């Protein structure tokens, strides 16, 4: 299922209408951030897993997210699981992120996982999720490419760094 709002927010469905992965939903202007948040809320997202760090120097969006959700009579949960840009964290960190995703999905919540550009850190986490489902490294990379194929960033490498690829190879070998 293709994400129809890629012109507003670069994203891609991992599990249609349940698990969405993509870019940072904030912006330098409140109007642009509100447009991104609106498409997430309209898609039924009620949990956001944020992989960005303070070192990314991004404009905060949480207050806008919670205000938009409240205005529509909803609650959106936000969880920070910071990973350095182009970097990786230890296996326990990825296990915690995956446990959070599974817990939220099992509770019937729809999840959005994001980093800054929606490529490296995000695809590494989704790759770990796919590896946990038994896919080989080559199949993980092919599946990520397939899921992202209809997006404006489809030609960009995912994951982005050697460290991210090495981590996925190790996770697939577990």
From TrEMBL:
Keywords for the protein's UniProt record, in alphabetical order: Hydrolase
Keyword NAD: no
PROSITE patterns: TYR_PHOSPHATASE_1 (PS00383), TYR_PHOSPHATASE_2 (PS50056)
Residues in Tyrosine specific protein phosphatases domain copies: 95-150
UniProt keyword annotation of Transmembrane helix present: no
Signal peptide: none
InterPro entries registered for this protein in UniProt: Prot-tyrosine_phosphatase-like, PTP, PTP-SAK, Tyr_Pase_AS, Tyr_Pase_dom
Any GO MF annotation of the entry: phosphatase activity
Name this polypeptide is given: Tyrosine-protein phosphatase
């Amino acid at each position: 299922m293709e994400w129809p709002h890629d012109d507003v927010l670069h994203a891609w469905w991992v599990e249609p209408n349940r698990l969405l992965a993509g870019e940072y939903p904030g912006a330098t202007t409140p109007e642009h951030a509100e447009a991104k948040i609106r498409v997430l809320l309209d898609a039924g997202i009620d949990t956001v897993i944020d992989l960005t760090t303070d070192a990314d120097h991004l404009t905060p969006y949480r207050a806008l997210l919670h205000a938009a959700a409240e205005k529509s009579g909803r609650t959106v949960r936000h969880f920070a699981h910071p990973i350095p840009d182009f970097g990786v964290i230890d296996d326990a960190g990825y296990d915690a992120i995956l446990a959070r995703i599974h817990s939220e999905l099992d509770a019937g919540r729809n999840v959005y996982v994001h980093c800054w550009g929606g490529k490296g850190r995000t695809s590494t986490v989704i790759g770990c999720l796919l590896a946990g489902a038994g896919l080989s490294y080559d199949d993980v990379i092919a599946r990520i490419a397939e899921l992202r194929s209809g997006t404006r960033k489809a030609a960009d490498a995912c994951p982005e760094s050697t460290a991210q690829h090495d981590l996925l190879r190790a996770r697939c070998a577990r």
